[in-house]
Design a protein that fits this description.
By secondary structure, this protein is of the alpha/beta class. It is about 30% helix and about 25% strand. The chain has 13 helices and 22 strands.
């Protein structure tokens, strides 16, 4: 007899949901994680801190209200790291309490410490309750690996946690830098670049590719880029960092391979993520990770060892908290032999830049490459009463519609509330609805949701015009 029916390594979104799902199915469950990391990277250094920081920045700078009350409007003149961190730590504490309560309420045993495999069905847990430092060996019928990721650190870069940092180091800065270089124009890099630009930091983004956020709609990305340039962000696309030289007087100089030298108080590397599997001793379980620390799984999130599953960022794309939660729940059901439906393929993407971006479905480029015809319907926030009320003149919503059966092929939103608005389009698409529903539906007025009706009418008018021409 093993100690547990299911043992979960990691208490982030994927691990937490796997543990609770199995517990609700009547299984005896345990979770292994460091005491100070309950909730995983998501709660402690990633999603929750960064999104809380974003809200604090928006509120204290008064950025969104400046079209209403003038460009000089702000809630606080001298915004400090303490101002930003106070709210962040409060939210982290509350979220950690919620997770601890959920685990306790569902009778999930929490084993504090770090785990490593010693046998395919056995894990040694160290650094927990035992003051002598001895390891506790626990066994389980099924094991779920949900250890998440950490920022990837190039070996050539001398990180010092103060001047040269990664995305985890952002929340530990002791002051708001006057200048900053962000290396990498992926989601995390652009999110933080926009936040610090809103604070008044002069930000330079260095990206080796020719554009940022390549998986997003080009028009939406161009709108974001324009807005960030308005916040004095400088972009260096097609550039590679050769070295970063730390200066004796403080700050650093980022040297590009093209010869450019960029001075800044802080350099933040956003070079992707690395799976936290190096300490798991996977070989003892008959497993191996790739060069980025990721574990290969099948459609049920089962690894090459049938009783071991892996979920969340540690298995790679899409590496989102929302999808990790579902992966954990589905893996637990499969591990417990309980029937469950697969994740619906139609998953929204949310990028918490300032302003935010969200989309679901395919982009114009993807549809064009696949030779799928489409019509575009656009609504701009400045045309909506609600847009005028909140002072958002730059936001937009775009619908991609099939002229053949009038179904929605993609929904792309830029501006205030984008990550919330996208779910209306997601629901219509998921239920097989057409643009006709949006045309005929009544939306509350004045709301940003009304943008769906405006965009739908725009697409419908274009399709009607084409139909008249071809009659």
């Amino acid at each position: 007899m093993n100690d547990f029916d299911l043992l979960v390594l990691g208490s982030g979104p994927g691990g937490q949901r796997a543990a609770i799902a199995a517990a609700k199915l009547g299984r005896k469950v345990a979770v292994v994680d460091r005491r100070e990391m309950i909730g995983g990277v998501c709660i402690n250094t990633g999603t929750i801190p960064s999104k809380t920081l974003r809200e604090a920045v928006l509120y204290l700078t008064g950025l969104n209200q400046r079209e209403l009350y003038g460009q000089s409007y702000r809630v606080k003149d001298d915004i400090t790291v303490a101002d930003l961190g106070m709210r962040t730590q409060h939210v982290i504490g509350r979220e950690t309490d919620v997770i601890r309560s959920q685990l306790a309420r569902n009778h999930v045993t929490v084993l504090p410490g770090t785990g490593r495999f010693v046998e395919p069905n056995a894990v040694a847990v160290s650094g927990g309750r035992d003051p002598g430092g001895r390891e506790q060996k626990v066994t389980a019928d099924r094991i779920v690996i949900a250890t998440g990721t950490r920022p990837a650190r190039p070996e050539s870069v001398a990180f010092d946690e103060k001047t040269i940092i990664d995305s985890d180091g952002i929340i530990n800065l002791d002051h708001v830098p006057e200048t900053m270089v962000v290396v990498g124009a992926g989601v995390i890099g652009i999110e933080y670049a926009s936040m610090f630009a809103a604070l008044g930091t002069k930000v330079t983004v260095v990206e080796r590719r020719e554009r940022m956020l390549e998986f997003c709609d080009l028009e939406i990305v161009e709108a974001l880029k324009y807005h960030l340039r308005d916040l004095a962000v400088t972009f260096r696309f097609g550039e590679t960092v050769a070295s970063v030289e730390r200066m004796a007087r403080g700050g650093a100089i980022t040297v590009l391979e093209s010869g450019k030298r960029i001075p800044a108080d802080t350099v933040m590397y956003s070079a992707g993520r690395q799976g936290m599997t190096d300490g798991l001793q996977l070989e003892a379980a008959g497993l191996a990770a790739d060069h980025r620390g990721r574990i290969k799984v099948d459609e049920h999130y089962r690894t090459e060892v049938p009783h071991i599953y892996a979920v969340g960022d540690v298995i790679g794309f899409p590496s989102l908290a929302a999808t990790s939660m579902e992966q954990g729940r589905l893996a637990a059901h499969h591990a417990c032999g309980e029937p469950v439906s697969d994740i619906i393929d139609l998953q929204p993407i949310g990028i918490y830049t300032i302003p935010e971006i969200s989309f679901v479905g395919r982009t114009e480029d993807a549809l064009t490459e696949a030779k799928v015809p489409f019509e575009v319907g656009v609504s701009r926030y400045r045309e909506l009463a609600r847009g005028q009320i909140i002072g958002d003149s730059y936001g937009m919503l775009k619908l991609l519609v099939s002229p053949e059966d009038r179904r929605l092929l993609g929904v792309h939103v830029f501006g205030t509330g984008a990550t919330e608005l996208v779910h209306i389009g997601q629901t219509v698409m998921g239920l097989g609805g057409t643009v006709d529903y949006l045309v005929n539906a009544v939306f509350n007025y004045p709301t940003l949701a009304e943008s769906y009706k405006v965009a739908a009418l725009d697409a419908m008018n274009k399709m009607r015009h084409m139909a008249r021409l071809t009659e």
